[in-house]
Structures are given as structure tokens and as C-alpha cells.
């Protein structure tokens, strides 16, 4: 019994230390490794933006309008809004906005409607890929507020650095909307600001959802996205890594794509369940085994197995509560069993400091009460994450592979919800 308690304590501690290292990785790296260029090259590359949407009536028009205002020549931008034929509400909203743009002479927007299955994001992307005509394809989600200069940024990076894949930053913004919002927003902050750079440095990178730019010929050559995987972004990132493709990660707070925290706890759990189950699927598929070095394979394995570990720890938590009140252990065992608590406190301190860094970068305000809110929400949040992991394992074992949709309400946008540009987003760069 004592040996088991110590073993679990050491495993949890090691995992927490590794997480802390990844969280802080980018802070002592040269900014040039992460930042956007200070000046832009003349536009040369053409882009096709893929905008998969399902039941997104509340936000799709604002996102299309946002794409219509990017600072890039319209003849070099194609926008494909991708919908399933049974989602007439989103189709109607998208086509109404596109018709308004056509009246302004903008012919580079169109809807792509598919009626075959599976009805999920990767299938929609593959259907749209066949309609893409430009050099580079980029994925945006239906609620995204992309920066108007993002195409200039990526055109410059791809041309100057001769890379064929760029992962740009994504950031949740409404960090005060629910009790869990700040912790969720900071997860994104540390993931894109730091952890993704470590993955890219090692060469084993699970790509992150959207604002990913791919050379179209490259994606066509590898067969597009895996339609059976719930985290098609992570899978295709590891598949490209296994082929030796260098992936440039760019997190610059000036150019992040802004998104919203899931509006309800139920929606948050569904989203996190899908991600966890997708990682389990990628782990079982074995793409990571094709990575060239042992370090790459170990990193990918540790990342993909994390949801399963989190599920086990969630179950272990109930056991630990029982032993806390019923088991008397030698003093040394008791002291060593508290080692994970010390590491968790270090992770929390990093998160609290990160809140000030995040809010300062985006012109927001962190207060002592917000930090207190982090402290109060920290432990319940970990329990929610563990529950989502247990739920993901359960769904995978039972063969429930359907796509659980996350609701979007535009909580990161202004009150009008139209995705209009703020003064802070006017380009300060010289072409």
C-alpha cells in the first residue's frame, strides 16, 4: 500500500514538473522564434480560407464579414464556407452575408455544401479542399476573429523562411465570463505561447485547431484530413512531423485569432471530451510511431496518453480521499506523498503570473480578485478536466465516435456581435 502511494506520488510529480517545464519553455527563448515579422513582403502567395460551420447561425455572418475586411488583395483570397446540407440555418445566414458582399463586387466568397457523411469537421475540410484553388489553405473556425493582417504575416513568414506549414496563435478572450473562463483562457495562452514552440522544436507537433496554414499541394499529397479522428488537427500535425516537415509556430499577441470560452460547463465538458477522445484515437492509430527519433516518439506518446492518465488520476482521487481520512502512514511516506501538492502550487503560481501577462498583452485588466477567483476555481477545474477524461475513455470503449458539437454565441465579440474591428486592430505595419 505504501509503495503504491509513493509510486503514484512520484508519477504525478514527474508529470507536473514536465507540464511546468513546457508551460515556461518559451519564456527564455529569443522572441524571433515566436513573433511575427516587423515588416511585410509584397503579397505573392494566394490563400484559400476554409470555414467549416455547423449550427453556427449566431456567429457565421460576423466571421464572414471579418474575412471580407482582411488587408490582403481580394483576388488572392478565396473563402469557402463549408456546411452540411441538413444545416439550412447556417447556410441561409452564410449565403445572405455572401450576397451582400457580392453586391459590393466581392466574388471570392462561396458556400460549399456536402450531403454525404460523415458529418464532421475533417470530412467538410476534405470536401472543401477539392474546391480550393490557391497556393495556401488556412482553417478558421466559425466564431473566429482573425486579425486583418494575418495573411500578410503568413505570406512573409512562408516566403522568407521557406516553410510550408505555419501554426498561428489562437486565444480565448472572455476570461471573466464564467467561473472557469480564466483557467480555460490561460490554457490556450500557455499552449500557443509556449508549449507549441517546444513541440515544434522537437519536431513532433499536434497542431491546434485553426489558424493553421498549409501549402495546398502538400496537404493534397498526404491525402487531407483523417475523417475518423475527432482531433484531425493533432493527427495531421504528427503525420506531417513524421514526414520531416518543418512547422513554424507563430504566437504574437498582436495577431492572434480571438475565440470564446465555451458558454456553459456542459459545452466545455463536451469540447474537452472530444479533444481527449481524439488524442486517444490518434494514440491507437499509431501515427506517432512513424516519427524518426526516440525523443519525438516519447514526446508524442506522453502527450497523447495524457487524457488516459488524467482519467486514471480522476478515479484515483476518490481513493486518495478515502486514504486521507482512514489510513495512517509513516511520517516519511506522508511527507513524500505531498510532493505533488508542492508542484501543483508551483503550477498555480505560474498560472497566476500568466494571468497578468495575458491581460497586459491584450489590453485587459487583471485584478487581485481575479487571482483569488483562479485559486477558488483551480481544484474544481481539475476535477472537471478529470471527469472529461473519464468520459472520453468511456465513450471510446463503448464505441461512441460521434462529433459532439460545441455551441458558440460570440461571447468574445462586441455587444453588437458583428465582429467589427476595434481601433487596437488597425495595422501598424508598413507593407
Describe this structure in words.
Helices cover 52% and strands 10% of the residues. The chain is an alpha/beta fold. Strands 3-2-1-4-7-5-8 form a 7-stranded mixed beta sheet, with helices on both faces. The protein has a two-stranded parallel sheet with strand order 6-9. The radius of gyration is 22 Å and the shape is globular.
Give the SSE map:
Layout (H helix, E strand, L loop, with lengths): L1 H23 L22 E6 L7 H9 L8 E8 L3 H16 L5 E6 L6 H9 L6 E4 L10 H12 L3 E4 L1 E3 L8 H22 L9 E4 H6 L10 H11 L4 E4 L6 E3 L5 H21 L8 H33 L4 H7 L1 H23 L6 H31 L33
Parallel strand pairs: 1-2, 1-4, 2-3, 5-8, 6-9
Antiparallel strand pairs: 4-7, 5-7
Structural shape? globular
What gyration radius follows from the Cα positions, in whole Å?
Answer: 22 Å
- Tell me the total number of β-strands: 9
Strand content: 5-15%
Secondary structure class reads alpha/beta
Order of helices and strands: HEHEHEHEHEEHEHHEEHHHHH
Compute the separation of the termini in Å: 66 Å
Helicity, as a percent range? 40-55%
Q: Output mean pLDDT.
A: 89
Q: Given the structure, what is the number of helices?
A: 13
**In terms of per-residue confidence, which ranges show pLDDT below 50 for 5 or more consecutive residues?**
415-431
**Largest beta-sheet details:** 7 strands, mixed
> Can you list the strand order of the major beta sheet?
3-2-1-4-7-5-8
Amino acid at each position: 500500500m505504501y509503495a503504491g502511494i509513493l509510486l503514484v506520488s512520484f508519477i504525478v510529480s514527474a508529470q507536473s514538473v514536465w507540464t511546468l517545464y513546457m508551460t515556461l519553455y518559451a519564456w527564455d527563448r529569443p522572441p524571433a522564434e515566436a513573433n511575427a515579422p516587423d515588416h511585410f513582403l509584397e503579397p505573392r502567395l494566394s490563400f484559400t480560407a476554409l470555414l467549416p460551420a455547423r449550427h453556427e447561425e449566431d456567429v457565421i455572418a460576423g466571421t464572414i464579414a471579418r474575412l471580407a475586411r482582411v488587408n490582403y488583395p481580394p483576388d488572392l483570397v478565396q473563402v469557402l464556407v463549408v456546411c452540411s446540407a441538413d444545416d439550412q440555418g447556417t447556410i441561409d445566414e452564410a449565403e445572405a452575408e455572401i450576397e451582400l458582399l457580392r453586391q459590393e463586387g466581392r466574388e471570392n466568397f462561396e458556400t460549399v455544401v456536402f450531403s454525404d457523411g460523415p458529418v464532421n469537421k475533417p470530412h467538410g475540410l476534405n470536401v472543401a479542399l477539392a474546391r480550393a484553388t490557391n497556393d495556401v489553405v488556412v482553417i478558421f473556425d466559425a466564431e473566429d476573429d482573425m486579425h486583418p493582417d494575418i495573411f500578410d504575416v503568413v505570406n512573409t513568414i512562408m516566403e522568407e523562411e521557406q516553410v510550408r506549414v505555419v501554426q498561428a496563435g489562437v486565444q480565448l478572450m472572455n476570461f471573466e465570463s464564467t467561473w472557469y473562463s480564466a483557467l480555460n483562457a490561460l490554457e490556450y495562452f500557455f499552449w500557443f505561447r509556449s508549449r507549441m514552440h517546444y513541440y515544434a522544436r522537437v519536431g513532433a507537433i499536434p497542431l491546434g485547431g485553426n489558424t493553421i496554414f498549409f501549402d495546398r499541394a502538400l496537404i493534397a499529397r498526404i491525402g487531407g484530413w483523417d475523417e475518423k479522428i475527432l482531433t484531425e488537427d493533432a493527427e495531421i500535425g504528427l503525420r506531417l512531423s513524421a514526414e520531416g516537415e518543418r512547422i513554424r509556430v507563430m504566437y504574437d499577441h498582436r495577431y492572434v485569432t480571438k475565440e470564446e470560452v465555451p458558454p456553459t460547463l456542459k459545452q466545455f465538458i463536451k469540447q474537452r471530451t472530444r479533444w481527449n477522445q481524439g488524442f486517444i484515437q490518434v494514440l491507437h492509430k499509431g501515427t506517432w510511431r512513424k516519427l524518426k527519433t526516440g525523443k519525438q516518439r516519447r514526446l508524442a506518446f506522453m502527450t497523447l496518453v495524457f487524457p488516459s492518465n488524467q482519467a486514471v488520476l480522476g478515479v484515483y482521487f476518490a481513493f486518495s480521499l478515502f486514504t486521507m481520512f482512514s489510513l495512517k502512514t509513516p511520517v516519511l511516506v506522508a511527507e513524500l506523498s505531498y510532493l505533488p501538492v508542492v508542484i501543483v502550487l508551483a503550477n498555480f503560481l505560474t498560472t497566476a503570473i500568466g494571468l497578468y501577462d495575458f491581460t497586459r498583452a491584450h489590453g485587459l485588466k487583471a485584478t487581485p480578485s481575479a487571482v483569488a477567483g483562479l485559486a477558488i476555481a483551480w481544484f474544481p477545474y481539475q476535477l472537471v478536466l478529470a471527469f472529461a477524461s473519464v468520459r472520453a475513455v468511456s465513450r471510446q470503449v463503448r464505441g461512441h465516435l460521434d462529433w459532439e458539437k460545441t455551441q458558440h454565441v460570440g461571447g468574445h465579440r462586441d455587444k453588437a456581435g458583428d465582429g467589427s474591428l476595434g481601433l487596437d486592430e488597425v495595422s501598424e505595419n508598413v507593407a
